[in-house]
Specification:
The chain is 56% helix and 3% strand. The protein is mainly α. Strands 1-2 form a two-stranded antiparallel ribbon. The protein has a two-stranded antiparallel sheet with strand order 3-4. Helix 4 runs parallel beside helix 6 (82-94).
Length: 560
Amino acid sequence: MAALGVASARRFLSKVTGTKHVMVKAKSVRRAMGAAVFVCGFASAALGNGCAVSESDVTRWEGTEHGPYKLVAVVTHDKYSWPLRTKAAIALAEMPARGGQRKGISFLVDKYKDDESEPREGALAVLPDDARRQIVNGMAPTLIEKMKLPAPKPDKDGRMPPDPSVPYKDVAFAMLSHEPTLITDDKTKADVVGALTEWGQADFENRIENGSQQYGLEQMMRFLGASSVKKLPGFINEDAYRVDRMAALVADIGDDDTKKRAGDAMVLLAKAINAEPWQTKQRKLIVDHNNAQGAKGVTDAQVAMQLQQVTDRRLNEEIFPAMKKVGGRAIVDYLLGFAADAKNSDDRRKTSLAALEGRLDKTNPQDLQRVFDICKDEGVADSIKDVAFQRLQEFPKDQIVPKLYTLFEPKKWKIRWVAGDVLLKTSSTKDIPEFMRHLPARSTVKMGMTEPLSYGGDIAKMEPPAGQPKPLEAIRPYLSSQDIGPRLTAIGFFYNGKKADQSNIAGFADDKTPLPKCEKEDDCQWQCEVPKAGTKETETKEIATIGELVKLCVLPTMTN
């Protein structure tokens, strides 16, 4: 047999194994030439019987250096029995990690490198269709049964033991998602899909974070589609800590019914977190934690602050963002009600309004009215009102313009300012006359300096369609207006403007017309930074007339 030579022996081994995909290095051949297994192969080949391989061999090869190549040979060799070939395929799926990685899927489904580092397709991928179907159908019951293994529980230190079902899930999904799929029998495919779906929903919160998977749970669910997330709404409760991940999956691939149930569950969860039982439970946990950490002298006020932070995190960082992803009527109604409730903190009310972005029903007049009620409420903090106005802008212009003009006579000038700013950002130069008619006519009406400067800036940025006046052309007539609001807006148009346009307002530098007056608490002072005499520094100067506004505040900014 030694006379065969290395090259002949390699060809002979390839013939014995029955597949051109199992190659052996020259040094491996030399080692094997005197071994019993080679004699067995030679003698058996001469007799035409093939080398006998038992189930114990298959099991043993899972852990040997060249075992994967031998298992591939058994899977692909048509002289072995179907049960043995199926056993070899399962052995590849169960193969222990090598170098920290489980490589069975590469040998079985994807690609691997043979003993001579040549790339090879996975064993199942190279089989004829009928042979592959026979082996895959034989593998499926074992894979499905193993996927039913219960998920492990964290140990006393909170560490999660390995999930024994993961290798079988990974192989099943690898076969299913292969292009083209390696599971071609309709019943087997349906059984595998069902098992994968159940697996993902059996212990979602732990398995979504399990880094030992070769195919992440989220990747698998997105492949499987709507059926894989149907049970997720049932997991959204006070003990859930991956509500955001559930919401993202339901929003992206869930059907309408799943989304509705998820929305209902999130509303119930948000209500529970704000309710006394949950608050009492969390308070006790905080006190116990403080005691366990040896924190002494923690006051009730400090515990209350800690509880507020815990609640803020659950609502602002988890539940409200999750609600934004899913949307739906139940969530919209809840968030609108939460934002309007003065008992809730400003920060939470603001975040609830932010979560409504893109979720309001533009055809529902009640949604519009509820947002508008927050905008016009003078008792609402500016930070909340700002977000409410952002939501208001999501509605069609013809619906919001009439409502916005009703805000031009409030007690607080800032409400008019924000309403006017929204109007101009949804308008063109043809709308300027209507806008100017609603501005204050007399300086006795409170008006802050930022208001007309903002209006002027908005108008300067307008890009009117053909046939409408250019911004400068539209604003110039109002420089000589008898009404204070339009005139100040026209001057504000030139703030930070072009040096070449200074001639438009330079003539008003000595205008003695008084500016609107406000009390300190109105926060509408008129002042700007001017050079400090004898130095290169600046100082804040109060201004009282239109002339001072032009000379000290606007002309110095026109340097472009």
